[in-house]
Amino acid sequence: SCVGLRNLLQGLSFSFSVRYYAKHNHLYSKIKPKKCHILDCSASTCTHRTVPPGSILPWRFLSCKEGTKIPSKRKQNTSVITSELLYKNLLKSEQENWNDISAKYKAMTKRIKKNLEELHKYTFNSGSPRIRFGENVYFEENGCIFLSKADDVDEGNVDILFSTEDLGFSDAFIQRVRISPDERYMAISLKSENSEEATCVIMKLRPFPIMEKVIPNVFSFEWATNDVLYYTSQKNLKCQNVFMTTFTNQKHTKLVYTEKDARFFVDIYRTKDRRFLTINSNSKTTSEVWLVDCRHPFKLPALVQARTKGVIYHIEHRNDELYILTTYGEPAEYKLMKAPVASSGMENWQFVYALEEKTKLVDLEMFSNHCIMFLKKAGHLYLTVISFVSHSVQSIKLPTWACEFELESHPEHTTSTCYFQLASPVHPPKRFAYSFKENNLIEQAVQEVPIITNCHTTRLLAKSKDETLVPITVFHNMNSKELHRKPLLVHVYGAYGIDLNMNFKEEKLMLIEEGWILAYCHVRGGGELGLSWHKDGCQHNKLKGLHDLKACILLLHELGFSQPKYTALAAASAGGVLAGALCNTDPELIRAVVLQAPFVDVLNTMMKPHLPLTTEEQEEWGNPLADEECMKYIKSYCPYQNIKTQCYPSVFITAYENDQRIPLTGVLRYVQRLRKAALDHASRTSKKGNWIPNIILDIQANGSHCDSSWEDSLDE
What we know:
alpha+beta
């Protein structure tokens, strides 16, 4: 999370991983349900562009056959114009098709919208994250940032510090907030729905709030001192430059650091005790950290440890020692180590604590005398507290219903209490506190939501093709009878080492109320069981994720959770790879598929090195340009490449005109080929009861791959 090291743990480099997380995890801003992480979304928000990659460039998808002459410039222009015309006609045709189809669902749409709006009233403020500075509490609601005393925050005695609407940013939402150490300045990043670019607004808070500066194209930022801000810039879906800007009498901005390797993505983090800023340069498998001493912010950054292939590390600081969260050494899972600031090289790293096997480290927070780790093991959440005074380690199992947690911001590292929130897809966020002094966990009083409370959580293990046990989390209404007749919605992701998003969403709770079963398949390629779980499902292991998904669905049906004709599969972004592949290999297991901004043409994308993310994505999918075996392997599972004439489930796809990560052209091609295959199969077979699946594409003019407002999410 943005307050601990979760931003670095979730996506080591910022790229297609955002295909999932930024759209489906949850931002500080509660205007919309479920976007990135807590009070920023450092690793899970979207960014950057020079030419808008979201603009459709059909000529990217045209190529000359080997041996043919390259057309003249005049012919090329004609080809481009023809291609653009075909694209526009196809887009128009799909939009007309959508208008005809959606008209049939008006009554259902109206009912669902009313239900969701009602649920949103009760869940909107149930878990608004807060920044605590001594007696002051900062929090965000409805596009405004408020200040209150800690004792008055729930009484409504608040001052407004910032409003997106009043300051002319009505089409934007708040993404990340940073308060300067003396609380004189506040830096806020804002993002519009139709762009991946973020804008940083600096507010001077005293004697009254006033806008001091606006910086475009900013990704991450931190205060080094009361009036010195470091930030990273975004360009063409990459983040490789770090700048420093001052708010002293001598205002100036200068470039501090540049990353030259296209596989690496740079962001900034501030250690909990405010002693250092860390400039973190990460690829998918390797990292390097530079330190900025906040006592001397104008000095050049100092290198902690030169990048070593395959070694990931992140830095915290306490009492002149660096605490290093790293994959260095065996096994290649996260360990906590430490080293003196003055001699921080790898040869001086000393072991502190190692995670158990198949355990996922979700977040870490450092305090003056304690370190807290948030862990996932076998689907359950744990709080592990390491005491630097007594040298003891205590593990606390969190409530069984909890599937996600978010740390609240604790700017004071000397605090004696750690605040965080727990949630699940069907449980709105609840605030908890862990007291170091009392050594206990306390659930904070919250307004009870007058909605269903008899939702049952079940955790299963499915045996995959190679005997690996794959976790499944299942939710259903305890009052439901004859579960084999109930509709089942299966969720899958399985990429980038990122966990399947299990944050609260109103629509999931609504489905439970209406008798649905929800299942979350934690397949390989994701990160639910640690780094090895991801490694075992990427590159030449990607098919293992597909085998896992099939095994999960078969087990659910075998245990009486629904049946194929009542089963739907949902996936977003890179999750579209496994969902689309299952449609090709085992279409009889499911009746319907819902895909959101899906990545369905892996091969063509990875064969285009000029695309901004292709190089860094090779660590996830492989490099088909340099490795013929890799090309054959990707081709063996790529959804677009394996469409065939057979009976497919019905498919509903949502795509975005402004999506810079999944070009709309590729989605259109996939839909056209899928539709043709389904129709060809129907025309060739005359079996009784034969049906033609619906292949529906909803192209959203607003929104992008990463973010959309609550209103747009509701309409969608």
